[in-house]
Amino acid sequence: MFTVSTVNVNGLRAAAKKGFVEWLAGTRADVICMQETRAEPDQLTAAVREPEGWFPLLAPSSAKGRSGVALYSRVEPSASRIGFGSAEFDDSGRYAEIELPGLVVASLYLPSGEVGTERQDEKERFMAEFLPYLESLRARARAAGMEVLVCGDWNIAHREVDLKNWKANQKSAGFLPEEREWMSRVFDELGYVDVFRARNPEGPGPYSWWSYRGKAFDNDSGWRIDYQVATPGLAELATESWVEKAPSYDKRWSDHAPVTTTYDR
Asked: Is 158 known to be catalytic?
């Protein structure tokens, strides 16, 4: 069995002080994909930067204190890559990948956007560049006899069942028609699979992100924006996929929860 977890840590230094280290020590995952690490390697303690038993790949953003992705693997990768060949985004801490036997695993932090601002323009530019990369990645992997797994915070709720208050958010970044259509292209045109939803077709939820504002967590007023997106051959091997929601508000070490899947490979 092969288990993968993905989680937006909302600042790895802060998460490490609130329970991430204990979660890492107890997880059964073979690979962990992290987003929004917001830290340079030398800002992390050794227990977080180079945890025993893990091979880490850290990809911080050139903008200090922003973004950042990472992958921790129990098996040493045969190759690694930071960025996807984008002049604008390769140093922004938004994408990194590793190669394991028969598998490419990637950590993605897609921009969140904000309607009517440059942040939304940035998100749209990223999406426009990243879609062809996903297509080429799948083609290259297929030619090499490998599967692909892109984990991360995609910052888009694909369907109405993927967020609590969908009616009120139809004009909000993360649930715009054009963003949802882009996600549909990832699945319908490129042939990737939303592994969690394939294993758990019913909704609404479960969600993976809850605002720190108000009673969002207590009322389970969340969004499902953290995905494991796989090529069909790997997706078919998924046996279980779940959200590791904290038992209570005070037990959270991020505003996201890990999304974990076990594959029989």
From this structure: no
> 71 with 58: CB under 8 angstroms?
no
158 known member of a binding site: no
Distance, CA of 84 to CA of 90 (rounded, Å):
6
Q: Where exactly are the structural domains of the chain?
A: 2-263
pTM higher than 0.85:
yes
Count of H helices and E strands in the chain?
Answer: 7, 12
- 135 labeled part of a ligand binding site: no
pLDDT digits (tens, 9 = 90+) for 229-250: 999 999 999 999 999 999 999 9
Report which DSSP code applies to 171: T
Catalytic residue among 72, 95, 109, 263: 109
250 is in an annotated binding site: no
Which residue of the set 30, 153, 162, 194 is catalytic?
153
Q: What is the topology classification, in CATH, of domain 2-263?
A: Deoxyribonuclease I; Chain A (3.60.10)
Q: Is 153 a catalytic residue?
A: yes
> Is 155 annotated to bind ligand?
yes
Write down the pLDDT at residue 73: 98
Average pLDDT over residues 64-78: 97
